[in-house]
Each structure stands twice: as structure tokens, then as C-alpha cells.
Specification:
single chain, alpha/beta, 14% strand
Length: 200
């Protein structure tokens, strides 16, 4: 049996996925979590072979979770299951250690098959999405992404500086750099462009 953990913040979706996977004779959904932090706590107890995770969740998203699993639970495989066919998300998921990237509109049988293949040491990705991802690399630095995420939340420069323990001048420099890289008209446009490409 392959022991699976589902990580998804929408309880109804999580329950539906569990029901679909439990139909399979060789898959056992042994744990469920609503976000990445909860998932990491459960992983500490052991007994998980494959984690199937959404991307956008509170507390810790699926990309952050995937990277944390690679660092602390190297034997556990990660499948990202999302609605977002964004090259930036795909690239970050692969760089973060995920072994698979599937879209939620794929057939249920595709997820079960992907879990089996990934458990066997293979990678499962959409070839078109993979080609697109490596054609346009993410130009943003970690700090630029942090700043733009806070811009998305409507935070003024002073609050961003305080939250990230930076000077306001440094925050303005990061914003200016991101705006230039993204050929954006301003900070909000830069955040929107980065989000649409999956870089946030």
C-alpha cells in the first residue's frame, strides 16, 4: 500500500479527493491537512510515502511545503495538484523538490496513476507546461517576491519595511528593480504581472 497525505485548505475538495483515491486498492489516504504547517507536523509522525498538495493555502503554501519536505523528509515524494497552469508555479515546484505537477481538471485516474509512478521514482509533469516554464525564467529575487506579496495586500512602503526589517529606501529599491524587470507601470502592476505568471 502507498500511504498518501492530502493537503488542501478546502475541506470539500479534500474529502472528494480522499474518496476518489480510497477506491484504489493500492492507495491509502492515511492523513489530511488544511495547510503546509499542519502537514509538516503530521509528517513528523512518519508513515507517509506521498504528499498531494494544493499550492495556494494559508499559513504555508504548497510550494513552501514542498521545499520544507525536501529538506526535512527527503524520502517523502510530493505531487502538486492545482488549478493554476502557470509556468512560474510549475518551475518553482520542480526546483523546490516536487516530483509531480498536475492540474485539478485532469481525470481522477490520472492522479492515482501519478502517485504510483512518483512512488516508483518517476516524475510526472505536463510536457507543454514544462516547455513553457523553462522558456521564461523567473527574474525576481526572493526579497523582490516578498515585497510584491505585501504590495498585493495593500501595504504601504513603511509597513513593508517594518515587516521585513528593512529600511524604506531598501524597499523602494526592491520595488524599482521589480518594476523594471517586469516592464510594469507601477508597484501594483508589477505585483499583478508577477502573480499572473506564477512568480508569487
Amino acid at each position: 500500500m502507498i500511504a498518501v497525505m492530502l493537503v488542501e485548505d478546502q475541506a470539500m475538495v479534500r474529502g472528494a479527493l480522499a474518496a476518489l483515491l480510497e477506491i484504489e486498492d493500492d492507495l491509502d489516504v492515511v492523513a489530511q491537512a488544511a495547510d503546509g504547517r499542519e502537514a509538516l507536523q503530521r509528517l513528523g509522525q512518519g508513515g507517509i510515502d506521498v504528499v498531494v498538495t494544493d499550492i495556494e493555502m494559508p499559513a504555508m503554501n504548497g510550494l513552501e511545503l514542498s521545499a520544507a519536505i525536501r529538506r526535512a523528509h527527503a524520502g517523502v515524494k510530493v505531487v502538486v495538484l492545482t488549478t493554476f497552469a502557470r509556468a512560474g508555479y510549475f518551475r518553482r515546484a520542480m526546483e523546490g523538490g516536487a516530483a509531480g505537477y498536475l492540474l485539478k481538471d485532469a481525470p481522477a485516474t490520472a492522479l492515482a496513476d501519478a502517485i504510483r509512478r512518483i512512488h516508483a521514482g518517476q516524475r510526472v509533469v505536463d510536457p507543454e507546461l514544462a516547455a513553457e516554464a523553462w522558456a521564461e525564467p523567473d527574474p525576481l529575487t526572493h526579497r523582490e517576491r516578498q515585497v510584491l506579496r505585501l504590495v498585493e495586500r495593500g501595504r504601504p512602503t513603511a509597513e513593508i519595511a517594518q515587516e521585513l526589517s528593512l529600511s524604506e529606501g531598501t524597499v523602494r529599491n526592491y520595488l524599482s528593480s521589480a518594476i523594471t524587470k517586469l516592464d510594469a507601470s507601477g508597484r501594483s502592476d508589477a505585483a499583478a504581472k508577477a502573480r499572473s505568471r506564477g512568480w508569487l
